[in-house]
Inverse folding.
């Protein structure tokens, strides 16, 4: 008898975990991702700030799942999902399924201002991280040869928008990059002129954390020299300019770290999604009206049976992957909806790193900041990084940075950058098609 076919969309934390755990002797499983690699997004900011190189935070999907016998892996982009026909349309093929697992993650959201993306890239992919890194390094290269003080100050100003974990991590990493790398390796520019401004619309940083840790993060960032502006709403973003209510800031680089929404493919579903495009799954993570289709990770909107709103973080995605694989492996999938087990989020805590020996962390009632939080952050990120090779390389890099303050991943490449380095003015980016 033919085995039931499970189609898994996305090899992120959720999809990859599901594939690792599913019993392929009982199910035919096809995993499709538009990339050939699994990406460890929590360390993307270190690529953007020249701390780590791309291969250190990514791993080929085939390598990661090479021990999983019978798993079919395809590289293709899902375009639409037809739940009524059990069919997914990709760029190059259509695939039918008996069961569907959607783990397509999130995208950067500009809250109704898609035009801002041209001027303020977000941080969600390797391309985003390397674009940001190139633009920052290039701005410093230009500043080194710039004689107009006003223009030089602009080039050396970086604005980060959004005071959540991504914004805090980026702001801390950029100020360290400016202070340590500029001070050592450039001769004409004064590192004291390098400015990093972090803008947050709300009254505190890291809004999801305990107020004491938000305050601690603010103090630590300000102590490093970041100009933090709370209760500050961005009105508009233009080419090298952020417009606030009563002023405009000229900046060589503007980075958007203020919001995410679910993968827009969720709009092709025949069920209602929430304002952020997230799928309101049932307690067993199946889609309402479609007990053979499941959604996991960042595409999901869920309040679990304990009343916890499940956040868009990697532990939740991993747990959902494990939970769903168990549903299949234990035959719970054959039960009626009412009899299937319910997913309960296990909140292990939250943390954000700010800089060298600086971080904040909370787990239950335990709260800590500074060096202990930073050590915990390093340990947990190493533990969850996929692959022994990556763990070893990242650990070696961190030890090297810690003792030398140097950042190795600072190569600007591609012909566009060479044009720029040859003196062509940085042009206003063209709108995307
Ligand atoms: C900069 C940054 C920092 C973060 N820091 C932390 C942190 O410190 N701690 C933490 O817990 N979480 C952090 N997160 C959040 C965490 O990364 C996500 O919650 C987690 O990745 C969600 O897992 P997922 O499997 O749902 O989606 P993802 O891991 O995003 O995986 C989605 C997969 O789907 C694929 N895909 C997307 N669209 C298509 C398509 N149309 N067709 C085929 N394949 C497609 C993608 O290539 C990707 O492989 C961070 C996220 C970012 C962006």
């Amino acid at each position: 008898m033919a085995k039931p076919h499970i189609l898994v969309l996305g090899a992120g934390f959720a999809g990859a975990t599901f594939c690792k755990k599913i019993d392929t002797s009982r199910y035919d499983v096809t995993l499709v991702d538009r990339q050939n690699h699994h990406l460890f997004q929590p360390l993307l900011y270190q690529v953007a700030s020249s701390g780590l190189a791309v291969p250190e935070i990514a791993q080929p999907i085939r390598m990661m799942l090479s021990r999983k016998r019978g798993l079919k892996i395809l590289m293709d982009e899902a375009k639409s999902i037809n739940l009524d026909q059990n069919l997914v349309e990709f760029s190059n093929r259509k695939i039918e399924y008996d069961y569907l697992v959607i783990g397509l993650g999130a995208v950067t959201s500009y809250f109704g201002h898609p035009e801002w993306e041209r001027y303020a890239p977000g941080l969600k992919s390797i391309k985003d991280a390397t674009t940001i890194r190139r633009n920052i390094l290039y701005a410093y290269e230009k500043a080194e040869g710039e004689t107009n003080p006003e223009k030089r100050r602009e080039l050396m100003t970086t604005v980060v928008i959004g005071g959540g974990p991504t914004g805090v991590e980026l702001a801390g990493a950029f100020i360290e990059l400016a202070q340590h790398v500029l001070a050592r390796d450039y001769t004409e520019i004064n590192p004291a002129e390098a400015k990093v401004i972090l803008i947050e619309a709300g009254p505190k940083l890291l809004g999801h954390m305990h107020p004491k840790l938000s305050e601690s993060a603010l103090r630590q960032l300000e102590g490093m020299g970041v100009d933090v502006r709370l209760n500050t709403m961005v009105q508009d973003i233009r080419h090298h300019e952020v417009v606030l209510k009563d002023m405009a800031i000229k900046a060589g680089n503007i980075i958007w770290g203020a919001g995410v929404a679910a993968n827009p493919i969720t709009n092709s579903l025949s069920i209602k999604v929430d304002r952020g495009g997230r799928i309101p799954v049932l307690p067993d993570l199946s889609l309402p009206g479609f007990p053979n289709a499941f959604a996991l990770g960042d595409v999901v909107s869920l309040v679990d049976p304990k009343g916890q709103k499940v956040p868009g973080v990697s532990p939740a995605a991993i747990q959902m992957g494990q939970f769903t694989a168990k549903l299949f492996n234990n035959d719970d999938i054959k039960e009626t909806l009412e009899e299937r087990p319910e997913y309960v989020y296990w909140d292990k805590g939250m943390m954000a790193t700010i800089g060298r020996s600086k971080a904040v962390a909370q787990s239950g009632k335990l709260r800590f900041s500074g060096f202990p939080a930073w050590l915990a952050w390093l340990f947990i990120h190493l533990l969850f990084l996929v692959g022994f090779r990556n763990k070893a390389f990242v650990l070696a890099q961190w030890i090297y940075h810690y003792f030398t303050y140097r950042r190795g991943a600072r190569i600007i490449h591609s012909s566009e950058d060479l044009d720029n380095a040859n003196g062509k003015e940085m042009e206003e980016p063209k709108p995307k098609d």
Notes: Residues 165-185 form the longest helix (21 residues). DSSP finds eleven helices and 25 strands in the chain.
